[in-house]
Amino acid sequence: MQVTSITHGIIIDHVPAGRALKVLDFLGIDPRKTRLALIMNAESQSFGSKDIIKIEGDVVVDLNILALVAPSATVNIVRDSVIVSKEKPTLPLHVTNVIKCSNPRCVTSTERGIKQQFHLVRGHEDARGMQYRCDYCDEGAKL
Amino acid sequence: MSAQLSSSLKGMSIVTLDDLSVPQLNDLILKALYIDGHRKEVAHTCDGRVLATLFYEPSTRTRLSFETAMLRLGGQVIGFAGASQSSAAKGETIADTLKTVSNYVDVVAMRHPKEGAALVASQAVDTPVINAGDGGHMHPTQTLADISTIFNRFGRLDNLTVGLCGDLTFGRTVHSLIETLCRFGNINFVLISPDELRTPQYVLDRINDTPSCSYVEVRDMTEVIGDLDVLYMTRVQQERFFNEDDYLRLRDTYILDMEKLSAGKESLAVLHPLPRVNEIAVDVDDDPRAAYFEQVKNGMLMRMALQCSVIGDELPGYDADKMEEEVNN
């Protein structure tokens, strides 16, 4: 399979297979208004299969948010058809208004004007032993 | 036990007991003991102060305990009992209610059915807010009553085997007690529950993170009751279940009666956050090991200690070092 390379933009590589659309959603990138290519379920030596997102143009990616939804991803910055730098996301200690608390008993489900805030704790929900919990009710985040 | 000057609590909101250090917890226990022995001397500690009790859901013990605590310190009380009597019925947010009420009072005690409501309240205002229960989440003053009762019975909060029995999944008092006792250390927890109501993993993680503490999970109370220093019974709470069938099936799983209690140590202390339904037989009440009505008294004394501390009113004649010396002797 061949996808035309980009000349000026970013390549989000090593996205867990099948999660590319979710990554775009979390990053707030609208596929209807952005010139991009999605490669889903591509072969990967490290992971078996992976998704790749190529975006043409000046795009700012919030690495903290990317870390939440695709912690294994890397971001390659492309200038004049050459990868000039690589960045790896790290899990942020706090996230605000990115994840929504799914606990129906949580105060965030009824109180108006309240921010959705989560903090990182050690847990068992994640292969890396990390989990985000709601600041208000301590419910684990469902990503 | 080492105490710390309570003035450090002045202006603080208490959403969870993690807001308090171990020396601060020790100081509150000493203050409660002092208050119990000096009721007249402390009767005007909070003269001119006003407590607001904002109770958005039903409560007998907790609300009356908070209100009595302030009245016994010389202060006065305003508030409501039930969301239908408040502006919440008109759609007012918690934050707006607090911003209004905080203009009237010196301290707020709030109970709300939503988890995290107390944090919202405490972030909205500078007036100290004490969490009187936020749904199934936290109930710090119940835990203050629990640790005070254990301390009064054993003179310590460490080197104990503590059994917790019943609803260990939804029981907020159980989680809070485990987490608080872990901070004192050297506790062996015996977690007695049916499979459906086992202790959540994040609470077990807290025990695992404390090297001096350990736990075992069992289904049968009778096989472990003889090993326990403390047996903390809980009610299977109907309001925590979405499905009534599950509630009815699990309600009668554990009932403590005199026959089961006969296998317990003479020094065993049986605690229960109350109200009970049928999980402790009434004839157990007369046994000296029953400590659950002492818990009610200790809850009020700890709320007195907490309220005057967050307001910043000193108890007349209270000397932390002297009190600590008395307790140690």
TrEMBL record, chain A:
One of the GO biological process terms: 'de novo' pyrimidine nucleobase biosynthetic process
Annotated Aspartate carbamoyltransferase regulatory subunit N-terminal domain residues: 1-88
Any GO CC annotation of this UniProt entry: aspartate carbamoyltransferase complex
Protein name from the UniProt record: Aspartate carbamoyltransferase regulatory subunit
Aspartate carbamoyltransferase regulatory subunit C-terminal domain segment(s): 95-139
Listed GO MF terms: metal ion binding; transferase activity
Record keywords, A-Z: Metal-binding, Pyrimidine biosynthesis, Transferase, Zinc
TrEMBL record, chain B:
Pathway named in the protein's UniProt entry: Pyrimidine metabolism; UMP biosynthesis via de novo pathway; (S)-dihydroorotate from bicarbonate: step 2/3
GO biological process: 'de novo' pyrimidine nucleobase biosynthetic process; 'de novo' UMP biosynthetic process; amino acid metabolic process
Domain Aspartate/ornithine carbamoyltransferase Asp/Orn-binding: 159-307
Top-level division of the source organism's lineage: Bacteria
Stretch forming the signal peptide: none
Family, per entry: Belongs to the aspartate/ornithine carbamoyltransferase superfamily. ATCase family.
Name of this chain's protein: Aspartate carbamoyltransferase
